[in-house]
Amino acid sequence: MLEKSHKTTKSLNIHLWMPELFALKGGIQVFSAFFLEAIQAIYPEANLTIFLKNDTDEMIAQNRDRLFNTQTYSTGKIKSPLRTLLFSLKLISAAIAQKPDLVISMHLNFSPIALILKKLIGTRYIAIAHGVDAWDIQNPLLKKSLYAADLILAVSHFTRDRLCQEQSLSLDKLGILHNTFDANAWEIAPKPQHLLEKYGLQPKQKIILTVSRLIASEQYKGYDRLLDAMPIIRQTIPDIHYIIVGKGSDRDRIEQIIQQKGLQNCVTLAGFIADEHLCDHYNLCDLFAMPSKGEGFGIVYLEALACGKPVLAGNLDGSVDALCNGKLGVLVNPDSPQEIAEATIKILSEDHENKVIYQPDILRQEVIATFGFESFQKTISSYLSNFLDGF
Questions:
Q1: DSSP string spanning 190-222?
Q2: What residue ranges do the domains of the chain occupy?
Q3: What are phi and psi of 57, to 5 degrees?
Q4: Which of 3, 216, 285, 300 is spaced 20 to 30 Å from 39 by Cα?
Q5: pTM above 0.90, yes or no
Q6: Domain spanning 13-180+372-388: which CATH class is it, in words?
Q7: Contact 128, 83 (CB under 8 A)
Q8: 267 pLDDT exceeds 90?
Q9: CA distance 34 to 371
Q10: Residue 282 clears pLDDT 90, i.e. is over it
């Protein structure tokens, strides 16, 4: 049963600031959509106002069923950089007019606006820290806004700890709100015959899968290191096949690496795969591997686990949270192709000491219990009750 809605003595006024919900689909957008759903369930009678920087009115109209009982503002039709200025002015003017009980910013970059409002009218605000947005912050105003925040919620212990260390923030100011996912979108199933045929693979052939955007700024995802590990893996598993799902500007460089290492016959760049076909790709693989070293959390790990698949991830970033410190998968040094190769061989040979990774039903049950929407909503309710209960 989901967390019950909160009863309040007056109608709450909550402002949610988001980069977008519909213009792009990435980790922050998915997180924001689930957060909105949770707020609507926890405080169904609240006056909820949503500000979307990059979405247009048309996008909002097409998705009005997801924005029920909300007032919505967007600036997506305005060209940058004017959009940023007008969006900021809208946040300030609406807050001064409506005096929200709480502002929740889905991106740290909006926090300086909240700081201005706090100084002007005493606005309380919560900021969400995802990953790279929270690291190596140099902007003085953004730094001040973090110190002044009433609460910062980080999606992983790695993000929280790095933010605390770099910005000298007190741990008391930060909480953990892990990413969530739609468990109903993923299921355990046999390898799809149509995909075996599409990629020219055999049912018993061992298949590794990575799902990632292929752009230069996200090379930290680890597909490079897996390509480095493939020649070592092939010495033990000659017919191993590696499928990389995703598109982006880094594809040409990846193709060059594949050619240089002579991996043309054992690596497939599948390109963009629509969401409705991703579950089949997870079920096609014998191992989902993304040995990242800069991941804020990694929703793809949850999706693979919900399909009952063994998962290999890096041990230096938010992936550790997603795999529950190795309870639900295998953590390796993401900078060591040798360690990646050895772990991959052990997993695919069913010789790894973590036997849970070979029990699909348990993997699915555990990942849903830990990171499913019910847990996500309960955690949000716990944090917000300190701010809003009794109003």
A1: PPPHHHHHHHT--TTS-EEEEE----GGGGGGS
A2: 13-180+372-388, 183-369
A3: -60, -35
A4: 300
A5: yes
A6: alpha beta
A7: no
A8: yes
A9: 12
A10: yes
